[in-house]
């Protein structure tokens, strides 16, 4: 009897999971916004293709997915600044160069958090 109940419960769980479509894409790096309460989740789903993603202070909000394909990580040319500059943002806004737009690189800032910054130029070898 227990085995029968277990099989029925397992079938219901599998059926329920099969009916919840998985949205494509992934969340961006933790969002540095002042939304510290859950604005979405299992009880409050996001509309359309938006995903429910974490905010820096422990909340959640609906945002557009970063990518709908497999993520390819790559390193952009240039070096991170030797002496970090920019605002004192103490929350990570990127995890790799791939998260940053245009030619910006993901570098540690004055606070130690990873943020998108303008790289220092790459020294070129002197011509012979």
Automatic annotation (TrEMBL):
PROSITE patterns, per database record: WAP
| Keywords assigned | Disulfide bond, Signal
Q: Which residues form the signal peptide?
A: 1-18
- Look up keyword Disulfide bond and say if it applies: yes
Record-annotated WAP domain positions: 73-120
Q: Which SUPFAM superfamilies match?
A: Elafin-like (SSF57256)
Q: Name one GO biological process term.
A: antibacterial humoral response
Q: Which GO terms describe its molecular function?
A: serine-type endopeptidase inhibitor activity
The superkingdom of the source organism is Eukaryota
Give the UniProt entry's GO cellular component terms: extracellular space
Q: What is this protein called?
A: WAP domain-containing protein
Q: Which organism is it from?
A: Arctia plantaginis
């Amino acid at each position: 009897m227990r085995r029968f109940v277990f099989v029925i419960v397992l079938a219901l769980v599998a059926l329920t999971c099969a009916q919840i479509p998985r949205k494509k894409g992934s969340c961006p790096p933790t969002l540095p916004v002042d939304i510290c309460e859950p604005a979405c989740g299992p009880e409050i789903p996001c509309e359309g293709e938006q995903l429910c993603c974490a905010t820096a202070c422990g909340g959640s909000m609906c945002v557009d997915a970063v990518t709908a394909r497999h993520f390819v990580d790559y390193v952009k040319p240039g070096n991170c600044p030797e002496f970090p500059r920019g605002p004192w943002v103490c929350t990570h806004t990127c995890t790799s160069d791939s998260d940053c737009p245009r030619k910006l690189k993901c570098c540690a800032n004055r606070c130690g958090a990873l943020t998108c910054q303008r790289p220092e130029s790459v020294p070129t070898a002197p011509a012979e």
